[in-house]
Amino acid sequence: MVSLLRNQKVRNALLQVLYVGSLAALVLSCAMIARRNLAEQGITSGFDFLYKSTGWDVNFSLLPATANDPYWWFFLIGIVNTLFLGSVGLVLATIVGTIVGLARTSSNELARLLGRTYVDIFRNIPLILQVFFWYALITHLPTPRAAHEAWGFLLTSRGLYMPIPNVGGLAMALATLAVIGAIALPVWLGRTSRLSQPVGERSAVQLGGAAAALSCVVLILMIGRLPDAPLLDFPALQGLNLKGGLRIPPEFSALAVAIAIYGGSYIAEIVRGGFKAVGKGQVEAALSLGLSPWRVFTLVKLPLALRAMLPILANQYVWLIKATTMGIAIGFTDFFMIVSLTINHSGQTLESIGILMAGFLTINLSLAAVFNRINKAIALKGNQLRG
């Protein structure tokens, strides 16, 4: 026994077991005390409430919802709404941040000034204030009767209306997957053929893959088209409101715009720092090979800058996902608001907060794991680390 304790690995393992055991005992003790206190106040604990009907409805849901649905279904609705808002916000913030970040590194003095002004303004205004600003602006837009139509799109005080394909749910899901494939397939083809094909042939393969995926999108929409209906359902004024098309509520629009603009200001600085980290010698070497400025950007500067900015970008994405909880301030039914409504109606505070913590922990850890995998895949190895 004494000889085992002299082993450093054994001592480290025992200390870890002792620490984990003490932590588990503390958590179990707190749970038992909380359960006893709740029982003394006549409050039942447990997760049986998840199977009871809520008795209330939500104003925005990507899944079908009625007041008779159980709590667990509304938790799922909240998670889906949060993921949808987060995905849209991250995409828009990335686009805005990339454009502003490139402007910050531009050789044009006016572009640099505009980029710096954007970052200095929107990065220093709290996100909650920007959410309130955009929500107030959208809700003061013209009414549906006074709104102006542009290519089937109408921006009104009741939300954004746009055309939507007249297809079944399965066809829409398949078309969405095909769109994702049209984006991911060229990237995958470029990575698998970069060592075996010249640059020109690789670009042709990528364009061919994207065209094939987009052709699948059109084919799926044509086959899944509802009978005796036009391909696109346009919003039209009926009475005092608009019917048909797709309606994006003002709460979602305000949050997406606020997250895009606020998050874009931080992503712009990440993009600027990533491109500044690319060595001048590597760029000059690429130019000396006769590559055009666009080829130097896409084949040298962008890949190297992406490697530098990806770890910081992952942290920013995780933060922006958590920023979706701002939706409760303007009535958007995200995961956080669903949990708040559940606490108010059921009184199951500890269980609901535990579900909220577990949900966000799963989302953020999954996002971090994906970025860690990407970062590991594109990391320079061995003597490639030398500039």
From TrEMBL:
Q: Which UniProt keywords apply?
A: Amino-acid transport, Cell membrane, Membrane, Transmembrane, Transmembrane helix, Transport
Q: Which Pfam families match?
A: BPD_transp_1
Membrane-spanning intervals of the chain: 12-34, 71-100, 121-138, 170-191, 203-224, 252-271, 317-341, 353-371
PROSITE patterns per the record? ABC_TM1 (PS50928), PROKAR_LIPOPROTEIN (PS51257)
Membrane topology per the entry is: Multi-pass membrane protein
Compartment list: Cell inner membrane; Cell membrane
Does the record's keyword annotation contain Glycosyltransferase?
no
Residues of the ABC transmembrane type-1 domain? 79-374
| Record InterPro entries | AA_ABC_transptr_permease_3TM, ArtM/GltK/GlnP/TcyL/YhdX-like, MetI-like, MetI-like_sf
In terms of one coarse class, where is the protein primarily found?
Answer: membrane
Keyword Lyase part of the UniProt annotation: no
The record's similarity note reads: Belongs to the binding-protein-dependent transport system permease family. HisMQ subfamily.
Q: Which PANTHER family match?
A: AMINO-ACID ABC TRANSPORTER PERMEASE PROTEIN YHDX-RELATED, MEMBRANE COMPONENT OF AMINO ACID ABC TRANSPORTER
Matching NCBIfam families: HEQRo_perm_3TM
Designated name of the protein: ABC transporter permease subunit
Source species, please?
Mesorhizobium abyssinicae
